[in-house]
Amino acid sequence: MTNRLWIIPALICSASAMAATDTIYVQASRGSFNDAAIHKLFSQSPQLQSELEFSGTPTNAFQRADEQNALAFVAVANSTIDGKLVQATVDAMEQYQVTELKGFITTPIEMCVLMNSKDVASEQPITLLASHPAALKQINGWKATVQAKELEVPEGTAAAAKKVSEQELPAGTAAVGACVLDSAYPDLSIVARGVQDNKNNRTSFILAEVAKRDAPVNEEQARIVLQQVIDDGIKLYGENLQ
């Protein structure tokens, strides 16, 4: 068994003190499932509330947090992934290590369908579904009820929602993504909730201080480290299911 102190020399679990700055670098983008998750964490632990900067990949979030002596918030596990661990975070853990765990939360992933409010007001039927390819593959049951064409938006669910909000796509286009997108883009209205095929889809997230490793570890070691961080989060906070 790999010695956890060799991999994580100083992992500390703390729910109180913040980092030197009051900024949290969040994986993904505004309106993402990560955005919804961190606001759920704030609602339970208001002392953690901070300015948010969305940073795309977990590696980018870790890098910015390390450079700014701040915190990072990333997805670490998903119930529908083979092996559970989020691969992008495994990749980030090869270069960075968690030095202090500030929060942990597991939340159901509820997918919503959103349209431009003008289309909703005019009762425009859904003729096109726009979202990330992975999201479009998770709503097969609901898609069968509308028989709409699909438009893949590789940039992500929030990017698809932005296009619908700004009417860059044809009338009758609906975006599929996190329900919080209606707050991120006020011109959107939710027209359907809980459309994901897997109703038990849950994702776990950590809020942590991180540091660049002196030398990268390999993927196997990174996976061990990440699982240890998750186990520590559950031990300290419980699954904290919201």
Question: What labels would you give this structure?
Answer:
242 residues; alpha/beta; 6-stranded mixed sheet; 5-stranded mixed sheet; disordered N terminus; 10 helices
Rounded to an integer, what's the Rg over CA atoms? Answer: 19 Å
Largest sheet: 6 strands, mixed
Shape assignment: elongated
Query: Can you give the mean pLDDT?
Result: 91
N-to-C order of helices and strands: HEEHEHEHEEHEHHEHEHEEH
Bin the helical content: 25-40%
User: Which strand order do you get reading across the main beta sheet?
Assistant: 1-5-11-4-2-3
SSE class? alpha/beta
How many strand elements?
11
Give a short synopsis of this structure:
With 242 residues, the chain is of the alpha/beta class. The chain has helices at residues 4-7, 33-44, 58-68, 87-95, 117-121, 133-136, 140-146, 157-165, 181-184, 219-237, and strands spanning 12-13, 23-26, 51-54, 71-78, 96-108, 111-116, 128-131, 149-152, 173-178, 188-192, 202-212.
What would you note in describing this structure?
- The protein is of the alpha/beta class and 242 residues long.
- The protein is 35% helix and 28% strand.
- The strands form two sheets. A six-stranded mixed sheet has the order 1-5-11-4-2-3, sandwiched between helices. The protein has a five-stranded mixed sheet with strand order 8-7-9-6-10.
- α3 runs parallel beside α4 and α4 crosses α10.
- The radius of gyration is 19 Å and the shape is elongated.
